[in-house]
Amino acid sequence: MPVGLMSRLTGAAYHRRPNFPWNILSALLIPFGLIYGLILSLRARAYRQGWFSAARPVCRVVSVGNLTLGGTGKTPVTAWLARDLKDSGQAVAVVSRGYRGSREGWCCVVSDGATRLLDAGQAGDEPVLLADALPGVPVIISARRSIGVETAVSRFSSRIVICDDAFSHLALRRDLDLVLIHGRDGLGNGRCFPAGPLREPAGAIRRAGAVLLNVTAGEEPEVEPEIRRSGFTGPIFRFRYGQVRLASLSDRRSVEPAADKPLLAFAAIARPEDFFQGLARAGWPVAASRVFPDHHLYTPSDLSALIALAKSQNISRLATTAKDAVKLPAKLPANVEILVADFSLEGPEGELRRLSDFVAARLRETI
């Protein structure tokens, strides 16, 4: 099964104990990682010292981000947090970058909470997924998060804004930074990109208000100690994806696993193997799989190739993630069944409730 480049790097080259030849490659890239890390450390210091100014919004702001490359679960956590705050009576909005959308760099309303106004080709896959998952919650894209936050306040009277993937976006002051870390890979080899998976030096994690460990694919015992060694003293919460549910893309009808109806699973996400393994654990017979580059926007020819592959192996069902489903062509063939996976968010007993209470308390402290 082919895997994406980012998955190979985070899983092999950037592992804390990489195998040959990845360890040689990583060692050769150490000088570049040191330079990159130094630049980001100086930038962070410039913001701390006030040499660079950061916008101070009139509402509460929560960032959901990560310190490493690769998928950690930011979008599902953002959706869960927005839903939790909305259910508690808060006027909440979400601001995302709009990565890989044709309007990346603009400030646009993806959803006003009632109607989605942009598609994935325009806004990017993650904002559209959030817009579809969060009725009643405005979703905005803006590379400059401060402008997105101002738009949420001025147009929708939002009192709390969640910024998706904004941990390193220091030009906006936040009331709380939630940093997600993969429970299996942790901080990898501890080096900055391109020698390692870190977007900033490991010590940047001290800015976080809380760390969320995604333990869906398992947790290695050294992950929490390495987080503590990096200087983080705050709370660490654990979460995982719960039981997978598949529904027909055409009519949203829930579908159950069937041994005589194997799947061709396909995905364009940072960690596709986690998706495929999740299907298998839930009892879905995955007969074949296909991986596309992260954030890939599917074309009709992509879909035709998938259908041809399925037919060559007598497979009648295709399965993909909700993030991928929003990027499929608008006109779908009628001769194939496409299923969309939905993973609930879970944690150890009471863990999500404790996380919810922690966020609420931190936001009250800043008022």
How would you characterize this protein structure?
- The protein has 367 residues and is an alpha/beta fold.
- Helices cover 34% and strands 22% of the residues.
- It has twelve helices and 13 strands.
- The chain has helices spanning 5-13, 22-28, 30-48, 74-87, 120-123, 125-133, 145-156, 223-229, 272-281, 300-312, 322-325, 351-366, and strands at 60-66, 92-96, 107-111, 139-142, 160-164, 176-182, 210-214, 236-248, 254-255, 263-267, 286-291, 317-321, 337-346.
- Strands 1, 2, 3, 4, 5, 6, 7, 8, 9, 10, 11, 12 and 13 form a 13-stranded mixed sheet that branches.
- 45% of the residues are buried.
- The mean pLDDT is 90.
What ranges have pLDDT less than 50 throughout 5 or more consecutive residues? none
Instruction: Please give the share of residues in helix.
Output: 25-40%
Could you state the order of secondary-structure elements as H and E? HHHEHEEHHEHEEEHEEEHEHEHEH
CA(first)-CA(last) distance: 51 Å
Estimate what percentage of residues fall within beta strands.
15-25%
Defining traits:
single chain, 367 residues, alpha/beta, 13-stranded mixed beta sheet, 34% helix
